Input
Amino acid sequence: MREMVKGSNVSLSALSENVGSVIVSLGWGSPTGEGDADVSVLLLDGNGKVRSDADFYFYNNQVAADGSVQLLGKTPTADGSEDRISFDLTAVPPGTDRIVVAASRYKDARFGDLEGVKLSLADGSGDELLRFAVDDVDSVSAVIFGELYRRGEEWKFRAVGQGYDTGLAGLATDFGVNIEDDAQTDEADEADEAQDHARLGDQADTTAPPSTDAPAPQGTLGAVPAPRRAEAGDEQRKPSTRPRTAKKKVTLPKAAKKTLAENESWKEARLFPVSVLKSDRDREMRATSVLLSVMAQVPEFGRRLTAAFGAPAGRMETFTEVTLPHGDSPRRPDGVIRVERAGKLWTALVETKTNGNALKAEQVQAYMDIAARRGYEAVITLSNDVALEGSPLVDVKIDGRRKHKVALWHLSWAEVAHQAQMLIRHEGVGNAAHAWLLQELLHYLQHENSGCHGFQNMGPAWVPVRNGIDDETLCQGDPRALEVVENWERLIRQVCLRLGGELGQRVLPVPPTKRGSDPKALRDRLADRLCTDGKLQAELRIEGAPGVLAISADLRTGKLRTSIDIPAPEQGYPLAWAKRLVRRLAEAPADLHVETLVEGETGGPRGTLERLRPEPADMLPRENGAQIAGSRLSLFKSMGSGRGNAESGFIRSVDDAVHRFYTTVVVHLDATTPRRAPSKAGATTG
Output
């Protein structure tokens, strides 16, 4: 792997033979767990400008029509989060000379609040080719991480690390993007206009020059064009608001149409019936066929699932129950995905499991060997299990002597359902037929008989660990505690997928570690902590929420606690703040616990919302001059005891607790606000 420094460049073909498509990942961490940034991509011509606004890809325009660019979204990592972008370099239009990869923060946030800002690039097989640690960008709100550019028939990468003081609006303007309002925007986009204006419109002065970092080496392309000069008539231009977005797509209606059935016993006819499924083999065959057929017929959905695996954009065909030679006994993988682009084929074998069936190492190893011999690019495993970083579900041996490399990827059924939800309920697809197909797929996956419910079993160690905690016989180093910690992490990742699919927002687990920590060593420490205090804990970062949602499962008491810490406002009187908070929580559960957080003290006044509603002043500290930092809102409920996903199971109780807390408490709170800094002159509590 090549370590890049600012201003250096390298030919991609010198690093790998499989660079027709690449994955660029932008990563960062946040000490508070709340910092984030948005990625953007610009396709530039020979003049260093976009040909049109369509060459600008960001959070409201994520996929190129030709498949050359696709923003894949965020993936949680041990350091924080990683935003991935898929590039099909064979599909980049001939008039594009450079591809700029950037990220920006909104409002007054700066990259100095983040840590571990970096870029990495992987080839089509998933092998990481290069890495670039971005430094000296503490005071800027937008950064150009790097750029891909043509040199003859090959593509090269340059590490840029150039900062912008003017945010996304200034960066886009300097590259020729029109960020004025689109007079032709239809009424259906008005809600999006308001939201985007709040994030982007008044972010910065778009005529301010970028920060003056070290220039690119002599003989290379300039990384950042000169600031746009003011022209006559600029004073009369409308204030800039946001880059124009793609046209509105088809999503499911919020309210279901009135049924024409005579009574509730009539069942709606479904494209993918599940009542005939009698065995696990039937479920695996049906689930594979249903998923692969929808992937081929709904390009947006198929592309979304395969782009993360290095597949190009192109004509996709899918197959089931194919027979491939393998020694004396031919193998029959559950499915095959083939994508054609410019006469080239990308092929992946698919191995599927449903219900609680585990992947078999011998099967996956055989498919890896077959794929290597036949020149296939990937093997994709699909099951209810959730893969963890640094802990593969299946151990396979890779023959280093083979020139052709095969990537092994895993996909959870929960992630498939999440992507379908995001498309048909929030982001939209190309037409009504595609939306209907995705709706039928989602109904199938969520049916109790499909076997595609995601992670649904805490494992055989669950009951012994609970008993060992109760009678205090569980010792540190017990492998059963580690198994429970790993399954808890899987459950939290799935809870994030489900909640994010319902909300249409990013929901990510906050990594309980510092940058560079070994995930396996971290799980060992968490397992030891479970043995001593009997608690499983996690935090979720929800886009737009005023704080981190914390979950704690106390195995000693059998209680689940969901909570959120919200900061006090920077200005105003404490009593007015307390009254306003109680008003905001008018529809929250009466048993909601409210605790006032006081700076420099372990705890402040606390009580249930039912008791505080008539007397909000009870939330205020009695000591004059005490500095209120905020409040902690918590709900408690009994947790399920069973290891499975039944009504009385632990998994169901955690899912329900998070859903209830968000829908009854968090939705009533104000959006994200910056935490006020401690002040020497404390506000009085009168």
